[in-house]
Amino acid sequence: MSGENIFFTPKFGVAGFPPIFFKSEYRKKRANIFEWLNSLSLDWVELQNTYGVKMRDDQAIEYRELAQKYNIGISLHAPYYITLASGDSAVVARSIERIFQCFHLAETINANRIIFHPGHFLGKTFDDRSRGLEQLIDVLLSIKNDVPKGIYLYAETAGKRSQLGSLEEIVKICSSVNYVKPCIDVAHIHGFTGGSLTSEQSIYDVLEYIENQLGTEALQDIHFHMYPVEVDKNGEKKHRAFHDIIDNQQLSLLNDAATNIYYPRPEHFIKAMKRKRMTPVIVCEALNSQEQGAQIMKDIYYMEE
Known about the structure:
By secondary structure, the protein is an alpha/beta fold. The chain has one domain: Divalent-metal-dependent TIM barrel enzymes (TIM Barrel). Helix content is 40%, strand content 15%. It contains ten helices and ten strands. It has helices at 33-39, 57-70, 89-109, 126-142, 167-176, 186-192, 200-214, 216-221, 266-275, 290-303; strands at residues 11-15, 44-48, 73-77, 113-116, 152-156, 180-185, 223-226, 229-232, 235-239, 281-284. Strands 1-2-3-4-5-6-7-10 form an eight-stranded parallel beta barrel, surrounded by six helices. Strands 8-9 form a two-stranded antiparallel sheet. It is globular and about 50 Å long. Mean pLDDT is 93; it is low at 1-5 and 252-256.
């Protein structure tokens, strides 16, 4: 496997098993997710290991074979429990163990992308945050010689300001650790920054920053999460579907209908991505409608040709 960009077209897919999958004719067996996605003309699935890596090797081999048969890419989402910036050495040790469990599953299932959250840090001040980030980088560097060849960790941008994972912090992690690449959760950046991604240009500016800091090649290696999000004073509040409307009309400024929808928007994202001539993996985490959101983005991409 290689971390180099091998895609000539973007790949659109889903996070986990969307609710509608369990109402479909494919519902009797989870392994049918690959055939189901293929029937929807989607390209990718991100398997969620958010509460622990529990998949058996025989199941992983079955998934690997079905993914190849139906031409579906696989990425893995690591457990939420990974906290490399903890002040408790036992917590850090368990976090490293979970990372290596992900490495094993990735090798078995033939996935080269493992998404992880940088997580919480000890304390609340800017200095605490900086120390937490440096500790996280040091821990990742300490295991670099044991990382399987061709498998990459993707550090995900955070949705809440109380967590590590600002865009700038993700860039620093990626520039410091050569086996870590950026997972840009566009909705998380929107939440983290208090709702800034409301236009094509605002998303383009994010991509421009990444290119300026990490180089043009980094743009092709980005892994995206994309969906709309509800925002409050702490950042991300709740995932939303692309068709969700803010029902409290008092939130509408000057009775402008555009303020009654949740951001970021698929058309803004796709246009910004195409301006940068990117062909990334795009995983949709829209509320209970992952497959719909992925199809919407794929349709927009090809309508814009």
